[in-house]
Design goal:
By secondary structure, the chain is mainly beta. The chain contains one helix and 29 strands. It has a single domain, classed as TolB, C-terminal domain (Neuraminidase), CATH 2.120.10.30. The strands form eight sheets. A five-stranded mixed sheet has the order 1-26-25-24-23, with no helix packed on it. Strands 2-29-28-27 form a four-stranded antiparallel sheet, with no helix packed on it. It has a four-stranded antiparallel sheet with strand order 3-4-5-6, with no helix packed on it.
């Protein structure tokens, strides 16, 4: 009887809840549109984790799984599967990794893979029939903490974020840090390191940053000496006094970011963090239906796109004028391709 009572109460609570929280939306975009995807079946992958665009290939990283290869290579023109490689295992041995992370941008058909444990970057030359390890470099930092997003500026300079959300520039040739940058975040209460969370991407020396807890993006640059420069170091929060003590009750604003030569793309949520969580934290359906805000590099609003679908993140293919994305909750065997030709004219 007790079990039946609990089940009935859960059903009542679920039926009383609306499926999703009403979204906060930024206005002022001259173009607002909804895109429908082309669905490409990808039989080889169960759960994509990240995707990078090379000159001739797409490389999809599978989620951490000891029974599967890490990286799956496809032709960029026809999405034909070539091969997979890399395994979770002993770091640096026989193309094995403890915790691999792909760089956001790569040069030509070279794929750069950073191993969080060994701190080494493996550079793989990718072609249609095989891959080959061409060189290694090491990131020498004393903390040994996980690094977050990583990106190239040129052959020797990389930028990345640390576990404590420092934005760092690093010289691979001298194995030394150049600059470490922290934003001044106005928050009434302390939410631990989560209050500092942000994502970034770059096009060479130009950088865009979007904050999790702040409805704000910032565009900056790397100076000639590869130190960071932003118009204003302080990040303001108009809802400062409304910050919730429980992290999951706070609004998630910006998720992942992408950049191209002409535009920046910011994945915007505008709903509480709780909406993204699974049961038992969240009894409602999980919500990954973000909006994509498109800006030029002067931060002028260009367009806002609604996909009306759960997507984890998007990767921009500027040459083909399209977006690659995937559903984190279902349809794992499909890659979604969205045509941007009506926007990128």
């Amino acid at each position: 009887m007790k079990s039946s009572y609990i089940s009935v109460m859960v059903l009542v609570l679920l039926s009383a809840c609306s499926p999703f929280t009403e979204r906060e939306v930024n206005d002022g975009f001259p173009i607002s549109m909804r895109l429908e995807p082309q669905k490409i079946k990808v039989n080889e992958i169960l759960k994509p984790n990240f995707l990078v665009v090379l000159d001739d290939y797409l490389v999809i990283q599978h989620e951490y799984d000891y029974s599967q290869d890490c990286f799956f290579v496809y032709t960029r023109d026809k999405m034909e599967f070539c091969y997979s490689f890399g395994r979770l295992g002993k770091s640096g041995v026989n193309n094995e990794f403890i915790a691999p992370r792909l760089f956001q941008n790569n040069s030509e058909n070279t794929l750069a893979v950073f191993d969080q444990f060994s701190r080494k970057i493996n550079y793989y030359q990718i072609n249609k029939k095989e891959f080959s390890l061409v060189r290694q470099q090491e990131v020498k930092d004393n903390s040994k903490q996980p690094l977050q997003e990583m990106s190239f500026v040129n052959d020797s300079i990389i930028i990345f974020t640390t576990f404590e959300y420092e934005l760092c520039s690093y010289n691979l040739l001298t194995a030394s840090f150049i600059d470490k940058y922290r934003f001044n975040l106005e928050l009434e209460n302390d939410l631990g390191h989560q209050k500092k969370a942000f994502h970034f991407c770059n096009d060479e020396r130009r950088i865009i940053v979007g904050f999790n807890l702040f409805n704000e993006i910032k565009i900056g640059k790397l100076n000639s000496d590869f130190t960071f420069s932003f118009d204003d170091k302080k990040v303001r929060n108009e809802r400062l006094m409304e910050r919730q003590e429980d992290f999951y009750d706070n609004i998630l604003y910006y998720m992942f970011l992408s950049a191209s030569k002409d535009y920046v793309y910011a994945q915007y949520m505008g709903v509480p963090f709780l909406d993204l969580q699974p049961i038992p934290l969240n009894f409602k359906p999980r919500n990954f239906n973000w909006l994509l805000e498109v800006y030029d590099w002067n931060k002028n609003k260009v367009a806002i796109i609604d996909f009306d679908q759960n997507l984890l993140r998007c990767i921009i293919d500027e040459q083909k004028r399209c977006i690659y994305a995937w559903d984190p909750l279902e349809d794992f065997e499909y890659l979604y391709i969205y045509d941007l030709s009506d926007i990128l004219k």
